[in-house]
Amino acid sequence: MIIIALIILIIIYVFVINKQAYGNDKESIIEVIQSIDGYNSESIEILEIKDIHNDRIVSFLLHDSPAFIQFYKNPAGNYEWNYVEKKEGESFAEFIPNLRDEKSDVLRMLIVSNQFNEIAQMELSVNKRIFKEEFDVNQSNVSWINIAKTNDDDEDSLRFDFKYFDVDGNPIQEGFE
Questions:
Q1: Around 150, how many Cα atoms within 13 Å sit in the side-chain half-sphere?
Q2: For residue 19, what are the contacts with CB-CB under 8 A and spacing of at least 6?
Q3: Distance of CA 94 to the CA centre of its chain
Q4: 32 with 21: CB under 8 angstroms?
Q5: pTM of the model
Q6: Which of 31, 109, 24, 145 is nearest to 73 (CA)?
Q7: Can you tell me the distance from the alpha carbon of 34 to that of 48, in angstroms, rounded to the nearest whole number?
Q8: Secondary structure class of 148 (helix, strand, coil)
Q9: What's the CA angle centered on 79, arms 73 and 82, to 5 degrees?
Q10: Of 107, 124, 110, nearest to 164 (Cα)?
Q11: For position 156, what pLDDT does the model report?
Q12: What are phi and psi of 7, to 5 degrees?
């Protein structure tokens, strides 16, 4: 009986547990994305894989919609996914990943755009501090903006104001979050 139980445990480990997909490489990242409800598409384009401490942030396009998936490194050294987000039907999207090991005085904003993007410049105001970022239009891009928090910032009351401009410097739209 003990030998049969051991054989069953080995079979379960080899064929079930050991086959779990992780975000360790590009192929397995695509496999993980396709296993998520609403993301199981053949049209996935990985744009960037960025490791920040024990977090792995993967920017991608899903049917041309900007998206990202976040993994964390488990004790065995494999990357397990814990969050995914997409902005369906958009050509330009801002995300703020929740980084586990990041210093609390830095907020990182991720910007993902596709080949239909017409935003050439963004002006971001965070509690009246201005950040400017330029983008290549009509190209898939990934950009990061590091926002250093000040002593005056209250985590619950950060205000983000956005201004977007085309290649000629004309305003496209304004928004806030």
A1: 7
A2: none
A3: 9
A4: yes
A5: 0.82
A6: 24
A7: 17
A8: strand
A9: 90
A10: 124
A11: 61
A12: -65, -45
How distant, in Å, are the alpha carbons of 13, 56, 93 from that of 64? Answer: 37, 21, 12
pLDDT tens digits, 47-67 = 999 999 899 999 999 999 999
**Structure tokens given for 65:** 């919609």
Q: What is the DSSP letter of 132?
A: E
Q: Which letter, b or e, does each residue of 53-69 get, where b requires 16 or more Cβ atoms within 10 Å of its Cβ?
A: eebbbbbbbbeebbbbb
* Tokens 């494999």 found at: 78
Residue carrying the six token digits 């904003």 = 109
For the chain, list residues with pLDDT below 70. 13-20, 101-104, 151-156, 174-177
Residue with structure tokens 């891009």?
141
Sheet with 79-86, side-by-side order of all strands:
44-52, 55-62, 65-73, 79-86
User: CA nearest 70: which of 59, 83, 85?
Assistant: 83
Q: In terms of Cα–Cα distance, which of 65, 21, 71, 69 is closest to 43? A: 65
DSSP three-state, residue 5:
helix
DSSP track, 32-99: HHHTSTT---S-EEEEEEEEETTEEEEEEEETTEEEEEEEEE-TTSPEEEEEEEE-TT-SEEEE----
